[in-house]
Amino acid sequence: MAKCQFCDKGVTFGHNVSHSNRKTSRTWKPNIRKVKANINGGTKTVYICSRCLRSGKVQRAV
Questions:
Q1: Residues 30-58: tens digit of each pLDDT
Q2: Strands (E), the chain
Q3: Would you say residue 39 lies in a domain?
Q4: Residue 4 belongs to some domain of the structure
Q5: Nearest-5° angle of CA 33, CA 35, CA 40?
Q6: Sign of the dihedral through C-alpha 52, 54, 59, 62
Q7: Is residue 50 part of a domain?
Q8: What is the mean pLDDT of the chain?
Q9: Domain of 32: which CATH number?
Q10: Can you say whether residue 30 is alpha, beta or left, with left for phi > 0 and alpha for psi between -120 and 50 degrees?
């Protein structure tokens, strides 16, 4: 579920780096929304990131 169905944006891994250069693990999570959308003439529930939603890659069902 933690992946956009349109752009495949998912969780990214990396480190928090302190001033003393000590590294601890962390994750960056995408802003995924569960949205009802008009796809191929029907209504379907999709998981989409907010950037794809704002850019108009999907038409929201009303």
A1: 999 999 999 999 999 999 999 999 999 99
A2: 12-17, 23-28, 32-39, 42-49, 59-60
A3: yes
A4: no
A5: 135
A6: positive
A7: yes
A8: 95
A9: 2.30.170
A10: beta
Which tokens belong to 7? 């752009």
Its pTM stands at 0.76
pLDDT at 9: 96
Residue 10 main-chain phi, psi, to 5 deg: -140, -165
- List Cβ neighbours of 21 (8 Å cut-off, separation of 6 or more): none
Count of domains for the chain: 1
| Tokens standing for residue 37 | 């959308």
User: Domain containing 52: what range?
Assistant: 12-60
Burial level of 26, CB count in 10 A (0-12/13-18/19+)?
exposed
